Amino acid sequence: xxxxxxxxxxxxxxxxxxxxxxxxxxxxxxxxxxxxxxxxxxxxxxxxxxxxxxxxxxxxxxxxxxxxxxxxxxxxxxxxxxxxxxxxxxxxxxxxxxxxxxxxxxxxxxxxxxxxxxxxxxxxxxxxxxxxxxxxxxxxxxxxxxxxxxxxxxxxxxxxxxxxxxxxxxxxxxxxx
Length: 177
Ligand code: NI
What we know:
globular
């Protein structure tokens, strides 16, 4: 397994639509394991393949608390096939938008069709934080970031700050070179 570098917004690759995988084979399984290791190391509760520069419809998540056994979820080609009318508001963050958070409303329950790590098609219901997390990760596969659910003004403020921080980091690296 390997820890992969995570793309930080704004980055054109984070705005692309990812491609479906044809099958969950050894390559996709390796990607899933690398993504889980990267996510745990960050640490985060979810990660999508485009965030590590792979434009494939693959996501991983684990919302278990630190005192619980890990409960890793691996999905390829996930699709939301049902949602509740009941909504949940959660203060979302993203490993590609470090240190920025915003309250986002999403359906509290979702039914998701996906291909699991043994290449079997499954349908499963999720609720609460896991439902929020999976909707956030599936958004990434369509080039949608959590800030895209905010007003243009709030999104602009966050993206400008990230751009400035990125530039500051780049010049620091340059100074040490
Ligand atoms: Ni994210």
